[in-house]
Amino acid sequence: MKILIIEDNPELTQNMVSYLQGENILCETVANLFDAQDKLLSFQYDCIVLDLMLPDGNGLEILDFIKNKKLSTNVLIISAKDSLDDRLKGLDEGADDYLPKPFHLSELLARLRAIYRRSRLGGSDQLVFNEISLDTALIQVKVAENILDLTKKEFDLLLFFITNKNRVIGKEAIAQHLWGDYTDDLANFDFVYQHVKNLRKKISQAGGNDYIKTVYGIGYKFDPNVS
Amino acid sequence: MKLINLLTIWYTLITMIALFLGGLLIFKKFESEIDFELGRELDRQIDAYAERIESGAPADRLIYDKLEIREIPYELPLEELYLRDTVAYHDPMNRAENQLKASKSYKIDGKHYRISYYNIVVETEDITETVVITMFSVFLIQLLFLGFFTRIGSNKILRPFHKTLDQIRSFNFQKNEPLHLPENSIAEFEKLNSFLEKMSQKLLNDYRQIKEFSENLSHEIQTPSAIIRGKLEHLMNEQISEKQALMIQSAYQSNEKINKIVRSLSMLAKLENEEFEAPEKIDLSPIVQKIIEGMTELIELKNLEVKTQIQENSSVKIHPFIAEVLIQNLINNAIKHNVEGGKLYVELNDYSLRIENSGALPEKDPEEFFDRFSKGNTNSDSIGLGLSIVKQICRRYNLRPIYRIENNLHVLTILFK
Predict the structure, then answer these.
(1) Per mean pLDDT, which range of A75-84, A184-193, B319-328 is the poorest?
(2) Looking at chain A, which residue has its C-alpha nearest residue B248?
(3) Which among B223, B252, B332 has the least Cβ separation from residue A185?
(4) Do A135 and A91 fall within a single domain?
(5) Whether B370 contacts B390, CB under 8 Å
(6) Are A15 and B227 within 8 A, CB to CB?
């Protein structure tokens, strides 16, 4: 998967690149509209990560550009301008998703993967990880051919873990991924703990390995190297 | 009270006093003038009779009811004209009347006569009556004109003032247009208008600055905060000790808190700026249901007893996004501050949204939770902006929030007017 990151803040760009590169995503970066258009004309990208407030204009112009040049690329808008208008406008103009800043890097990865699945794989994808396989179209998980009885949230959680495997995912990131913006108001994260516990239990009962590890008090890690 | 009415009342009172004093003056003047003229007339009459006596008319034959001639001792000195009021018989009216009596003595042919002549005086009551009637008529005429003036004149004079008022009333920060008031020939109104124009311009500038500031602030803080978050997430993935993990966790949580505060404040600013127009009513019931469903796991986790009574088509004029923020906030609160195995009742109908939940009872007046950064428990991790957002939303859309404790339950009601 090859993406273009259009973001003028070098630190943020670096954060995103170093996280995504480890996931086998090829990242190219530009810091303004002009360079972005240049790149878009010369290369083919699966997805664009687009900031809206750029030094030489509004990122929404890129959406027009893509439409006019009939480029087949997906767009994920990231913006600190948390305004509803921009969100609606962006999605109207053909963006595939909108992620308000600040976001968790794990969430960015999950969204990129989801966009990729939707557009390139027609929404259906078989994710196989050792004995666990996920079908994103059917929302079904099999562990060594046993179908797991998971709730929608548990399925999302597992998908989130596998997408971000080998990474430490903070409790906050999990809460936000599953319940959206406002749950971060729920100060204690017992409910995350509870959900992870249930998921681990269900996988173990079906005969799967317990890949999910607790990392001190910070969060969890889906560790493929578990013995 | 209208200014014009106040002016009228004052004007009427002052006129009444002026007319009263004027009336008194006129009365006094009238009285003395009449007495003076009457005295002169009587004097002339007496002189005329004296002449007749001098020319040989017998004094005792002249006497009649108005005239009195009396011989007094010759040695007495001549008496000057002497006027006095008396009551005497008045023939034509056939009764005693107030009369003016003038007397004077003459020495004619070795005899000394005191000649007194009476005449009826104009009675004070008559003067008073005349004066009062006159003054009253003047007063009535004045009132008539005053009424006329307040009806028509003042409307005409105050028209520019009312126009200015209308313009101020329709002044709106959203339209972003300073006041433009028409030129005026009345100096005071012109002064007021130019002052208002300048003020509106300044208000708009300040408003724009504050708006830009709050927008920039949220952007400017969110970017570095996003960087911090990213760096900390990277750090988490390094080889770290538990001690380091705890430090990362603590830094991470504080950063999240900054984030939350900035986001909430920017939401408050947007609400205060009257963004999120609500052109039409929307049905809240699906939103409430959706939010409760989204919280199912959290509700189960706390073993809450949930009862809902949601009436369909409970419509309120509110922006759909804001409706979600409002309900999310309220239900979040009701779950967050609840106790293990507590209660959560949600009732929605055309008039109100009522959320009841168990929880620790507050020491202070629950209404204070609507204030910014006000928390029931100072140690709690919440930032204390949730309910002030609720309050701001209610103010923006003319709803009424009420927070009470009833039967040991927290009861938050939003009344739709």
Answers:
(1) A184-193
(2) A218
(3) B332
(4) no
(5) yes
(6) yes
Measured on CA atoms in the order A47, A21, B258, A111, is the torsion positive or negative? positive
| Domain shared by A115 and A137, yes or no | no
Quick: pLDDT tens for B246-286. 899 889 888 888 888 888 888 887 887 777 887 788 999 99
Q: How far apart are CA B159 and CA A126, in angstroms?
A: 77
Residues A28 and A114 in one domain: yes
- Poorest-pLDDT segment among A5-9, B179-183, B386-390: B179-183
Going by their DSSP bridges, the two strands A47-51 and A2-6 should be labelled as parallel
Q: Is the same domain home to B327 and B298? A: yes
Q: What is the pLDDT of residues B318-347, one digit of tens each?
A: 988 889 889 988 998 888 888 889 999 999
| Interfacial B residues in 167-226 facing A (CB < 8 Å) | 215, 218-219, 222-223, 225-226
DSSP codes of every residue in B271-337: HHTT-S---SEEE-HHHHHHHHHHTHHHHHHTT-EEEEEE-TT-EEES-HHHHHHHHHHHHHHHHHT
The SS3 of residue B109 is: coil
Query: What's the rounded Cα separation, in Å, for the pair B23 and A123?
Result: 103
Lateral strand order in the sheet of B305-310? B305-310, B343-348, B352-357, B409-416, B399-406
CATH code for the domain in which residue B207 is found: 1.10.287
Question: Which range marks the domain in which residue B84 is found?
Answer: 3-126
Query: Which site among B233, B238, B274 would you substitute to test the A interface, given the most A Cβ atoms closer than 10 Å to its Cβ?
Result: B233
Residue B307: what pLDDT?
93
- Range(s) of the domain holding residue A133: 126-222
Is A192 a domain residue? yes
Say yes or no for a CB contact (<8 Å) between B298 and A186. yes
User: Closest partner residue to A170 among B215, B233, B321, by Cβ?
Assistant: B233
Instruction: Calculate mean pLDDT across residues B81-88.
Output: 81
Question: Which tokens hold the place of B145?
Answer: 């004109």
Query: Which whole-number Å values give the CA distances from B165 to A192, B162, B196, B375, in the listed order?
Result: 58, 5, 10, 42
User: Can you read off the two tokens belonging to residue B16?
Assistant: 């009444």
| Average pLDDT of the residues in B52-63 | 81
Nearest to B298 by CA among A202, A180, A192, A158: A192
Q: Are residues A44 and A113 in the same domain?
A: yes
Global pTM exceeds 0.80: no
Q: A2 in helix, strand or coil? A: strand
Q: What percent of chain B has pLDDT over 70?
A: 97
